[in-house]
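notes to self, project folder thing:

trying the whole complex as one job this time. last attempt i did each chain seperately and stitching them together was a nightmare. two parts in total, labels are on each line so i dont mix them up again. if this works i'll redo the older ones the same way
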Amino acid sequence: MSAITITNLTKKYREVTAVNNLSLTIEQGELFSLLGVNGAGKTTTIKMLSCLIKPTDGDAVLLGNSVKEHPQAIKEKINISPQETAVAANLSVAENLELTAGIYGQDSKSAKKSADEIASQFGLDGVRKKKAKQLSGGMQRRLSIAMALISTPQILFLDEPTLGLDVLARRELWASIKALKGKVTIILTTHYLEEVEVLSDRVGIMVNGKLTAIGTVAELTEQTGTSNLEDAFVLLAGGVA
Amino acid sequence: MRIILFAKRNIKEILRDPINLFFGLGFPLILLALLSVINAAIPPEANNPMFAIENLAPGLAMFGTVFMALFAGMLIAKDRTSSFLMRLFTSPMTALDFLLGYTLPMLIMALGQAAITLLASGIAGLEITVNILLAVVVTMLTSLLFVGAGLLCGSLMGDKAVGGMCGALLTNVAGWLSGVFIPLDLIGGAFKTTTDVLPFYHSVQAIRATLDGNSGDIISHLAVVMGYTVVIFVLAVIAFQSKISGDKA
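result (full assembly):
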């Protein structure tokens, strides 16, 4: 069953077409990676799907609701971990989590319970009372993703979730993301191709606002006659092999 | 529910910053002490009541609330640049949740600040009457002008620009053009005409009229301030809405 059905989705900023006629279906529980060089249209696509910006043309239906007609219904069911850590700096870890849970409709008691559970799940138990600004970059990322998951979203957008993390922190986050596979539909954007290979069910490659290739990692390497995703990506993104 | 949650977050975010606490609560008291000392040093034969407590108290009550623009503006600008607002924009929060969630904490702080400043003025010699309580409420109302300015600047600018605009420029403009630090009637001319047109002088006069129990003057001065406030809030809502709709995010 599809979680996201995108039909001819287009976003134009005056003369610039950031996303051009994008059509795509993503299944429930799938982890779909969106790849592309800077300016390819990945973030604009995510912004349209998460109802942050309106499409110029076309539509996307998320869990039965159109981004154009019922954005508020979609917002109840999705969550996002933006590129920046996007946490409330002077609030503690527990306060950040409880705030997010409350915003998504949980009462104070449920929010506290959810915060305890997700803090434990993401290894944030020991820093629950620490202010977010006092956490390391890796811990802030974990908090950011925990905040995105505390509302138990059916669709989760992860925009470069491991940007700037060291190898160990990245591996820990991968494990957390892997644990969500099959339960939550995840759209991931990243520049780390190893991450894509480890985590993704399918991969879409965007070039100049267009989706130029789609498939599993194996399908993309086979299609390009390459031995790894990086070489396949370079070829499909129009670079020099 | 969401409004209260978000307002609580915003008040914590501001009050947990010691610099904000200093400017929000301490700075008007320091000015009160300093200008009272200057007033005591002015010889009676100079016949200059500029810094007499009856004149000083309403001026400082108004001047303290200028910092609400800085607090509101910096908070929104930081929420934007850290993508915290982007996270909230994808949540079920509505435009009203954001507007009231940012405004209510500022009003509560303005209320507390005005109460502290006017009660401290009472200790410094201002006659303590029930009018002080009313003046606290009127100061809270006039502070909406600065809250709106903060919402507007925070929606349009980065945190550094907000610091310059609300922290440096607005505090100076409001300070000089309200008559807190200089005798406007003595200067007169185009300067006085300008201060009459702008809302800062009227904010001080509305608070002063409240302390004096002069209800007619309260309404006439407050009407000017509220006129500006409505315009600034409409502009702030338009600017913020354009961020929510995302096309200029």
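what i see at first glance: The two ends of chain B are 26 Å apart (CA to CA).
need to look closer tmrw
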